[in-house]
Amino acid sequence: MDTITIALAKGRTADSTISLLEEAGIHFPDFSPKSRKLVFHNNDRSVKLIFVKAVDVPTYVEKGAADIGVAGKDNILESEADVYEILDLKIGKCHFAVAGKPETRLEGSQRLTIASKYPTVAMKHFQKKGIPAETIKLNGSVELAPLIGLADVIVDIVETGTTLRENGLEVIEEIESISTRLIVNKASFTTRSAAIHELINKLKSVMER
Ligand SMILES: Nc1ncnc2c1ncn2[C@@H]1O[C@H](COP(=O)(O)OP(=O)(O)OP(=O)(O)O)[C@@H](O)[C@H]1O
Ligand SMILES: O=P(O)(O)OC[C@H]1O[C@H](OP(=O)(O)OP(=O)(O)O)[C@H](O)[C@@H]1O
C-alpha cells in the first residue's frame, strides 16, 4: 500500500492538528503529547506523520520529503515555497502586524529598520507601500527590538496582543490573517491524487460539522 507522509509542525498547533486527524478517522495509537518521538503511523500504516519545526514544514513539502504539510500561513508566506495550499484548518488563528512604540510613524521616515522572524514578509509589505526599509532577522523575543533601539518597528504575529501590551508596544498596521493551512507537494498531488483527495475530503467533512 502507498503511504502518504504528512509533515506536521511541532509546537502550539500540534495537538489540535492531531485531534482534527483523529476526528477524521485517522488514528495514531503511539502518539502522546509528551512523547519525544518524531515519526508515527496510523493503524493501517497508510499515513506516516513526521514532526518537524514549524518553519521547516513548507520545505519538506516543496522538496517532496512529505506529500502533505500542516503549517501556519506565516511560515508558508515566509518560505515562498512552491506548493499547493488546499485547506484552511482554522486553528492557530492570529495575524501579522506591524508594531512599534505608540509615537512611531511609518510615513515620512527616511529608512525604516524592521526586526522580524519573517523578513521576507516584512520587506514585501514595505515595498508594496513604497516605504524604504531594511530588515533584521531575529528568531524570537522580537518585541525587544524597538525597546532597545535595534529596530524602529517589528513585523510579527499578534494573537491576544498581550506580548505587545506588556512591552509598551502597539499595532501600527495589520497586514493579514494567519491560520494553519494544509499544503500539498505539486508532484504528489498528481501521482498520489486518490489517497490525497481521500484525506482532504475526510478533513473537509470534519471542518463542515
Ligand atoms: N501567539 C500565537 N497565537 C496563535 N498562533 C500562533 C501564535 N504564535 C504562533 N502561532 C502559529 O503557530 C505556529 C507554530 O508556532 P510555534 O510557536 O509552535 O512555533 P515557532 O514560532 O516556530 O516557535 P519555536 O521557534 O519556539 O519552535 C506558527 O507558525 C503560527 O502559525
Ligand atoms: O499576541 P500574543 O497572544 O501575545 O501572541 C503573540 C506572540 O506569540 C508569538 O511568540 P512566541 O510565543 O512564539 O515566542 P517567540 O517567537 O518570542 O519565541 C509571537 O511572536 C508573539 O511574540
Automatic annotation (TrEMBL):
EC code(s) of this entry: 2.4.2.17
Protein's UniProt keywords contain Amino-acid biosynthesis: yes
Main location: cytoplasm
Reactions the enzyme catalyzes: 1-(5-phospho-beta-D-ribosyl)-ATP + diphosphate = 5-phospho-alpha-D-ribose 1-diphosphate + ATP
CDD domains given in the database record: PBP2_HisGs (cd13595)
One Pfam family it belongs to: HisG
Molecular function in Gene Ontology: ATP phosphoribosyltransferase activity
Domain of life assignment: Bacteria
Domain ATP phosphoribosyltransferase catalytic residues, every copy: 53-204
UniProt entry keywords in alphabetical sequence: Amino-acid biosynthesis, ATP-binding, Cytoplasm, Glycosyltransferase, Histidine biosynthesis, Nucleotide-binding, Transferase
Localization per record: Cytoplasm
Biological pathway: Amino-acid biosynthesis; L-histidine biosynthesis; L-histidine from 5-phospho-alpha-D-ribose 1-diphosphate: step 1/9
InterPro entries: ATP_PRibTrfase_cat (IPR013820), ATP_PRibTrfase_CS (IPR018198), ATP_PRibTrfase_HisG (IPR001348), ATP_PRibTrfase_HisG_short (IPR024893)
Function comment: Catalyzes the condensation of ATP and 5-phosphoribose 1-diphosphate to form N'-(5'-phosphoribosyl)-ATP (PR-ATP). Has a crucial role in the pathway because the rate of histidine biosynthesis seems to be controlled primarily by regulation of HisG enzymatic activity.
Family: Belongs to the ATP phosphoribosyltransferase family. Short subfamily.
Cross-referenced NCBIfam families: hisG (TIGR00070)
Subunit structure as annotated in this protein's UniProt entry: Heteromultimer composed of HisG and HisZ subunits.
PANTHER family to which the protein is assigned, alphabetical: ATP PHOSPHORIBOSYLTRANSFERASE, ATP PHOSPHORIBOSYLTRANSFERASE ATP-PRTASE
Protein name: ATP phosphoribosyltransferase
The gene coding this protein: hisG
